[in-house]
What does this fold into?
Amino acid sequence: MTCRTPDQAQAPSRRDFLRSGAALATMTLAPGVTLMAFGGSEAEAAADSGKRWGLLIDASRCAPGCSDCVSACKTENGWSGHGDPERDVQWIRKVTLKEKATGREVNLPMMCQHCESPPCVDVCPTGASFKRDDGIVLVDKHICIGCRYCMMACPFKARSFVHEPVTNQKPHAPRGVGTVESCTLCVHRVDAGGIPACVEACTAAGHGAMVFGDLRDPESEISRRLAEFPSAALRPDLDLNPGVRYAEI
Amino acid sequence: MAIDRTIYREIPFTPRLWAVTALLGAFLLGGVWAFAHVEHQGHVATGMTNQVVWGLPHVFAIFLIVAASGALNVASIASVFDNKPYKPLSRLSGVLAISLLAGGLAVLVLDLGRPDRLIVQMTHFNFTSIFTWNILLYSGFLGIVALYLWVQMDRNVHPKWTKPAGLLAFVWRLALTTGTGSIFGWLVARPGYDAAIMAPLFIAMSFALGLAVFILVLQALCALSPCPLGQALTARLTRLLALFVAAALYFTAVQHLTNLYAAEHAGIEAFILRDGGIYTTLFWGVQVGLGALLPLLLVYGRRTPPSAGLSAGVSLLVILGGLAQLYVIVVGGQAYPMELFPGYVVTSGFHDGQIAGYGPSLPEIALGLGGVALALLATGLGAKILRVLPTNLSDQNLAAKG
Amino acid sequence: MIIRRLILGLCLVLAWGAAAPAQEIAPVVPKATGTPHPEGNAYMRRWHMQMMRHDRDVTMYQGVRPVDASLNACFECHTVRDDAGTPVTVADERHFCRTCHDFAAVKVDCFDCHRSTPEEYDEPPAHAALSRPPGLLPRSLSDIATMQAYLETVDPEADR
It folds into this structure.
């Protein structure tokens, strides 16, 4: 008898890999330009560089004491607190602003602002922080080493570090101890042609304070409202061009 | 007066050497325990939070890294600036620099959320990150100082190569400390950072901290070996240390005066300089008072050269002040809230607009001290197995060289 | 010469191992439900990680969701249930992935972030980690108690 290796299975070819992408045919026309055809799938072409997903938050419609967007995000993405407010993660939080000069108060939700020039992506040593072609800023948790430099760099305190082992995650929202996470703009829903859970909840509650859409499409509701009414980006001094905009602050 | 030739000797085995090794080994074991504990529990076992994301481990790590580049200065003064009395010390200077850097990097790496993924950091580089550049600068420093040591210690290498190797190491160490300071200097988001002066400030700090550690290590190694250490040499080193302390104080003053001039930074300055509680106490009491003004007074406020005991005391004060300074920069800079909406008072369930609390936990202290122990053990090991400690440091030799 | 002899010796040892009854040297792979992989089991055993890694990158970076090789899809057929019919998590050594990975002593990194059971099932919290207030003192004693409690829950048959 001779020495034998466990199995002599052949390495998967590039063709096999593409086939594993289900009913999807991909063809690279030029660097950065990818032609995709979906066999019978209703999903839109995902992570399209012709799009830029954004949110418009109308602070005048955001009800004080209402946290439907936060609850919806928790349910959708499976994060919650352990009663330790300093270490608990926050993908989205309600913030109350009180104007120093007049005392006028407004409410609004804060989350990852999905900047066009995200400081978290610049500082990440491994490249785990990245921006998709459609402008959504994510963490590749497979290569996040948990150095927390992105949390130092984020001007919005939008990122959280997972301080404890996690179980029972949602399949579409993996999260684990020792890595950094933040709002994904419900990327799994967006890829399937849907809208983020917070926007859905806000609309369902009748507030309509959040509008989601493509900032590059001049016909989208978000673009039309941004063109018509005044709005602001947070920390405009940093010139990060965030994808999340606020109106009526 | 005859000058003894510079002969380098390994330190001999003595019961005292074993005792010191055992003590440092205990601290090293404490560091290993802390790492295993936090790795198993998650960072919930530390005092670090989502508000203060870098804590005491980072203070220790940055201290050791900054001191590492400063410890090399003694060698640079000898080889680059041709200062003869420092020449016998350059080998020890190189060994100490490598050891301190190794200790600091160990603390930094073992505090990662996923330290098991160190290999990821070695294979994925994002070159827009100053962290990535620092990884290259740190690795390069280890290699270049090793080369510098080899050039000095191998008899087959012509001495003419010492100066170019020393010059390369000197330039590299300036780049390294610039990179370390820029970790904070390039953070645009936080009002306590975002300042180019962080780079020269860190360079000045490294000069002071590295020399302070060097003086103490030199005294300790000479006490553990039969080689005499003349008071004149430590007095000379201590006077130089005071000069470096003054430089670090100068950059600190410029940093805060610049910030005070800008109305947008009034908040963070009031916090650090006046209202910050522990941070204000650490800044004025420890960093400025004990760590800078008192050493300056002790060294320059006397006519006679500082004694060996005074040199050790001044070095300890400078180290204490440096730790306080890094604590104020690292933790204080995060404790002060970021300005999300200028002109508004911000409140939320996530500590927006509030001063963040931070208390170091035992694992963090143990990990930091473990890194210090690792650096000192590595230096001791170097002095034990390599010929780095000279035997001609007595006062007569120094007087003869001038 | 010596190297050739060593290789020959190694072959003999391996051949002896291969000749022994299979269940003594191979992990006992839990039975799966559903239709077999068209690629064949040998192919899946060798290349499952490459397939998943490729599809995960396509999903994460390009947002292409309809992929075959996902952890989620694995659990459609490869869920091991305990005596009560509840799916076991990766904390249990009967978990599908663990049977081989424990045998081969290869660490699985997936389940620090991904769930290790089908979505419908409610996984219990991670052991020894949750609901402890932070403090200055080490918690080694409570760890020992947790570890003992954990060991008591481990299948007693595993000792045999």
Notes: Residues 68-77 of chain A form the longest helix (10 residues). Chain A has one domain: 53-247.
